[in-house]
């Protein structure tokens, strides 16, 4: 398990979480009422473009996980997903058109209209 503390600079050797997204994660964790959960981000086969993102709260730590702290929010990426997510930025948008987490991934060569699937 690797632990790193991150400042506001954009990382190319790991995942990035914006301040807005970190604030939303903290708010959701407070609603859950549990302090043992962390945000896990994974890349799984599936979706219309071949790969899809999964974001969920998890209390597990797996062998080889990369753990990064963003202002008190632990973000965990499993070792198989790390190469797909290096340099990716997770943000949270709340507009009239859309609400939810978004992922800007420089490793994705294409995506589908749903926004959840890429290749």
TrEMBL record:
Gene3D superfamilies: HesB-like domain. GO terms for biological process: iron-sulfur cluster assembly. GO terms for molecular function: 2 iron, 2 sulfur cluster binding; 4 iron, 4 sulfur cluster binding; iron ion binding. This is Iron-sulfur cluster insertion protein ErpA. PROSITE patterns: HESB. Pfam families: Fe-S_biosyn. It comes from Nocardioides mangrovicus. InterPro entries: ATAP, ATAP_core_dom, FeS_cluster_insertion_CS, HesB-like_dom_sf. SUPFAM superfamilies: HesB-like domain. Residues 15-116 form the Core domain.
